[in-house]
Recover the amino acids of this structure.
C-alpha cells in the first residue's frame, strides 16, 4: 500500500502523532504502526487535513466571475500551493447574466470532476441580496431584493451547487429567503448588512447559521446597540467567517471573537481576489478597479476590497500574532468549514475512510506538499 511513512500527523482530538498513513483509491485506508507502507514521498513536516476555503473569489489572475472553467482551473491550481484542497467559488453582486454565467461554469467543472488542484466544492453566492447601505466592494447598481424565485434560478444554473448565500436579513424579503434556504439545506449567512442585533436574532430564528467576513460590511459593536458583530459573538448558532490578514480585522478584534465563540463556530476564509499571487498594481473585482499594494487591496475611494491572503498565512497569523494553538488554527481551516458547508462526512479531518486530501506544512507554515484525492497536486 502506498502512502506516508513515519510522518507527524495531526489527528483531531488526539494531537500530533508520529504514524503511517495508507492511501488507496484516493482515500485514507489505514492509519497506524504497520510500516509496510510504500512512501509517496518523505517529509519531516506536519501532515494536516487539506484546507477548505468557503469564501474565495479568485487567485492567480482569475476570478469566479470570469464565468469560465479555465478561470476556475487557474484558481484550483493556485490555491493548492497554499494547502487548500477544496473551495467554494464565490460570486459578486453583478448583473443576473454575469452571475448566471459564473454559476454555469461551476456546474460544468463539477460535472466533469477534473481539477488541476483543489476541488470546487460548490458556490458561495455573495450578493446580490445585500443591503445597499453596506455594499463594501460590491457594485451598488446590481444589488437586488432577496427573492426565493431568483435564488432558485441561480441554484439551478449552478447544478444545485450553492452552499452558502450571503444576505441582509433586515431588507424586505430577507427573512423569507433565510427560511427558504434552510428548507433546502443551504447556509444562510448574515453579511453586507445594516441590521441591528434584533435583526440577527430574527434571522437566526428563521434559520441563519453563518456570518460573512465578521466585522466587515456590517454594523459593529456599540454599548447601546450590539449590532451584527455583537450578535455574531453572542449567538452560538452562528459560525463566524473571518479574514485573518490583520488588515481587515485587527489582532485584538480577532481574539475577541475567538474567545466568545464555541470552538467549532469560527472559520478561516481568505476572501481572496484575482490579484492574489500577482504583483502589486492595478487589478479588478466585480467590474471595479482595485489597487493592490503591500498586501492590501482597495478601491479607488480607499474602501477595502477582497484580500490577497493565502490560507497558510492566515493560519500562521493566528498562531504567531494572535496566540492560537496550532491545532486549533488547523481546525478553523479544516474541520469547521467542512462541518459548516456539510462535507465533513468525507473530508475536514484525517480519518480512515475519508478522502486523502492532505497538506504538509513545515515549521514556518510553508506548504511542502498538497494531496487531493490521494494525488500530489503541489510539491515544493
Amino acid at each position: 500500500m502506498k502512502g506516508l511513512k513515519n510522518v507527524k500527523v495531526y489527528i483531531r482530538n488526539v494531537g500530533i502523532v508520529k504514524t503511517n498513513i495508507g492511501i488507496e483509491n484516493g482515500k485514507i485506508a489505514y492509519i497506524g504502526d504497520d510500516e509496510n507502507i510504500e512512501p509517496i514521498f518523505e517529509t519531516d513536516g506536519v501532515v494536516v487535513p487539506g484546507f477548505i476555503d468557503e469564501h474565495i473569489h479568485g487567485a492567480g489572475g482569475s476570478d469566479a466571475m470570469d464565468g469560465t472553467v479555465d478561470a476556475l482551473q487557474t484558481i484550483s491550481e493556485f490555491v493548492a500551493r497554499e494547502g487548500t484542497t477544496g473551495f467554494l467559488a464565490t460570486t459578486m453582486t453583478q448583473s443576473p447574466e454575469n452571475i448566471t454565467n459564473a454559476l454555469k461554469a461551476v456546474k460544468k467543472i463539477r460535472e466533469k470532476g477534473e481539477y488541476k488542484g483543489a476541488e470546487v466544492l460548490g458556490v458561495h453566492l455573495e450578493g446580490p441580496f445585500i443591503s445597499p447601505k453596506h455594499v463594501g466592494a460590491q457594485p451598488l447598481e446590481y444589488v437586488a431584493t432577496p427573492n426565493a424565485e431568483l435564488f432558485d434560478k441561480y441554484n439551478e444554473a449552478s447544478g444545485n451547487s450553492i452552499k452558502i448565500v450571503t444576505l441582509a436579513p433586515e431588507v424586505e424579503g430577507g427573512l423569507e429567503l433565510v427560511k427558504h434556504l434552510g428548507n433546502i439545506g443551504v447556509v444562510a449567512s448574515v453579511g453586507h448588512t445594516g441590521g441591528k442585533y434584533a435583526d440577527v436574532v430574527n434571522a437566526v430564528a428563521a434559520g441563519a447559521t453563518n456570518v460573512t467576513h465578521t466585522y466587515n460590511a456590517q454594523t459593529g459593536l456599540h454599548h447601546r446597540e450590539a449590532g451584527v458583530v455583537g450578535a455574531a459573538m453572542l449567538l452560538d448558532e452562528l459560525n463566524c467567517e473571518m479574514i485573518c490578514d490583520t488588515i481587515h480585522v485587527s489582532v485584538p478584534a480577532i481574539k475577541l471573537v475567538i474567545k466568545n465563540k464555541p470552538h467549532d463556530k469560527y472559520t478561516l476564509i481568505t476572501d481572496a481576489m484575482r490579484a492574489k499571487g500577482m504583483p502589486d498594481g492595478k487589478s479588478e473585482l466585480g467590474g471595479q478597479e482595485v489597487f493592490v499594494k503591500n498586501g492590501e487591496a482597495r478601491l479607488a475611494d480607499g474602501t477595502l476590497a477582497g484580500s490577497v491572503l493565502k490560507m497558510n498565512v492566515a493560519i500562521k497569523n493566528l498562531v504567531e500574532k494572535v496566540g492560537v494553538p496550532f491545532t486549533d488554527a488547523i481546525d478553523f481551516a479544516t474541520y469547521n468549514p467542512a462541518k459548516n458547508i456539510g462535507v465533513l462526512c468525507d473530508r475536514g479531518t484525517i480519518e480512515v475512510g475519508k478522502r486523502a486530501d492532505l497538506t504538509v506544512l513545515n515549521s514556518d507554515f510553508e506548504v511542502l506538499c498538497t494531496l487531493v484525492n490521494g494525488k500530489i497536486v503541489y510539491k515544493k
Notes: The CA atoms of residues 207 and 237 lie 9 Å apart. The two ends are 24 Å apart (CA to CA).
